[in-house]
Model the fold of this input.
Amino acid sequence: MTTDLQPNTRAAAATDHPSERAQRALARARRLAQSLRGTAASRDAQRILPYDALALLREHDLLNLRTPYALGGDEIEYGDVVRVIEELARGDSNVAQLLVPHYVYLERMRLMADEALGRRLWRRVRDGALIGNASTERGSARSGEITIRLVPEPDGYRLTGRKFYSTPTLFADVVFATVRDERDRIVYAVLPTDRDGITRVDDWDGLGQRVTGSGTTIFENVRVNPDEIIVVGDWMERRHYTSSGAQILFAALKSGIAQAALDDARDWARDGARPSRTTGVEQVTLDPYVQALVGELATAALSAKLVLHHAADALTQASHAQYADLPEQALEAVLVETAVKTAHAQLATEQAALLIAQKLFDVGGTSTALKRHNFDRHWRNARTISLHDPIVYRSKAIGAHLLRGDAPPLGFTY
Done:
């Protein structure tokens, strides 16, 4: 664990508060989201890989939100990172998802890595590095199983195997490969993506989130140095805040999609749609049924946002509790409560995103189906993101906790 890089260990000369830095980060994210919104539909329709958007993420300094303040980063609260991702997803959920593995793995590194590796990687991120993911394998009996192994050699290891759904490794500078070591422990091999033997393939063909760089990563006899290993080990069997963190960042994407679909519904009603002959009104915005529909959708989006932010605040508290000297039982209570609130956020944001993305088409009639608008991307994107965490298990966890006091099952997405 990177003991001198824990939250709130910033330099004594700090002149502003994390909340002030968070407000500036949110303002930057909103400005960028407005810009991304204008090109999101065409980027999706034409499958234009978002290299320009990634450059804008760096330009707006949105890769350094958790980088220690003493090392030149913002080091805002983890819950505020959730809010930044949500804002970006309102502009383009594909671009926002590039940052999800980035922050998931940085937080895992904060929790699990030794100090030397932590410092090296934080400095790379400070200088603009994007972190990618290489976890998922195909062909195993159950999703999430890890079978690829490091092969020991006298001065380190070699890695050979294939990983799939490697968001956003196509664009990343560093990749966290989830593998097993010679002792059968789960470990992360933290590797530069330009290392000899690493090939990134642009073969992601999902119906949604089309330009997230979520293709195949191939490792062919790749050198892995001993100091590039993070031992996950028994963290797989322990409750910790980074599991809720991974899940709530996906909820942030879905909340952003819900708001983006609402934005398009509102703008289409104002500027694009024609009223039906049966309404007797001259403008769609005067149709009482459209007004009622937009009111329903706006309430769904706001409700999801509030539930998400409630969980985000719990995540911030859990991130502090994880590093505090709390009795085990007290820490467990905080982490369980955060997991339950995260499940609420997952459920609420998914329901809102799918509802609004579907009912958007009821605002303006047949012309909403024209390809040039690409309104269907909202539903496709929300449905694709929803498959990361089957929502029925989230609602079950909420119900079991409410009815029986059961703790949610341990989760370790990404």
Observations:
- The chain has a mean pLDDT of 93.
- The chain has three domains: 3-129, 150-234, 238-404.
- The chain has eleven helices and eight strands.
